[in-house]
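[stage:ingest] chain + small molecule (NDP)
[stage:ingest] validated
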Amino acid sequence: MLTSQIVVYSQHGEPADVLSTHSYEIDDSHIGDNEIIVKTLAAPVNPSDINQIQGVYPSKPEKTTNFGTVEASAPCGNEGLFEIIKVGSKVTDFSIGDWAIPAQVNFGTWRTHALANDSEFLKIPNPSQSKANGKSTGLTINQGATISVNPPTALLMLTHYVKLIPGKDWFIQNGGNSAVGKYAIQISKLLGFNSLSVIRDRPNLQELKDELTSLGATKVITEEENGSKEFGPTIKGWTKETGGEIKLALNCVGGKNSTGVARKLANNGLMLTYGGMSFQPVILPTSLHIFKNITSAGFWVTQLLKQNPELKVETLNQIVEWYEDEKLIDAPSLQTKFDPNGDKPLHELYQEAVINSKQGKQLITF
Ligand code: NDP
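[stage:predict] done
[stage:export] tokens:
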């Protein structure tokens, strides 16, 4: 028997109040023909994980007593990296030692081990497989554990809706220093698009601007500059220099910030809203709709890739290749290692990680 520990909640609420760790047994000597047992290598905290626990996210895991809890409980965590430690007799897609990520969200990644059907996982190369494949490097734990949400979001938003002309066209984004924002900066550089990133002012503004520039940002401006009429001509000058237009806006903030971002779009431009970090509604001036024919639409990676599993595989393959070729740098995480024999239960580690996520992306390693 293998003992798995999993973070669950039976009632929605703040993570600090509702999470608990539950232990349950996996019978590793009798697994089904198509089943696999995985060991968690790392699982991050994303904003959507927190919103799920709070009960304000539209996609949620089912509450179940399958983990042996008295009350039906839902598992936490959507993204994570796993290693296969046992395979059933008819499993052909995985071998022991392979790395895998959940094929769908809501798997419950904040746990030490899982018994699953092989169809619930997608294989990604582990470092020795990448090297055997002629690559100079393999994925890191952080890259594997955070590959399913933020990098595909950035790549798909940049390529799936609007055709930007390499070398000429631009996209604008707010939350330029968010994890998604940093991937969007790098991927746009790889694809030859110009980026204009809006960030909030801070004491070490220049340091952050330098960091984003080193990732490949074309231009980085503050929220104040984004909202200022006087700054508009400077941006127009930048786009004129490249002979292109700002055809796409990526909005994860909302409020006045998103209004400023939408105003920078050229005629017929598209604003994709994928997050609402300010908790303010998106307000678009009527004139932008009528006279500039701006379109405002939502983007949700979960729904898009659920409807199109082939696109998911294609997108992940591209991200893996960029990582292996060292063309893409992962957004760094603050890593904390879980000690299964230590004093701190797993849910307390995640509760601390939720609080600390304001200081940067948190990754629990196992
Ligand atoms: P991060 O935690 O890495 O970054 C959060 C960003 O939000 C930072 O740039 C932060 O800026 C900014 N921010 C926070 N509060 C405010 C505010 N009040 N006003 C302006 N900016 C603010 O986040 P992720 O990259 O992981 O995710 C970013 C957003 O994208 C989230 O809302 C997430 O849910 C969403 N998302 C949506 C997806 C989808 O499919 N729709 C997929 C992936 C992510 P600062 O440093 O100044 O605090």
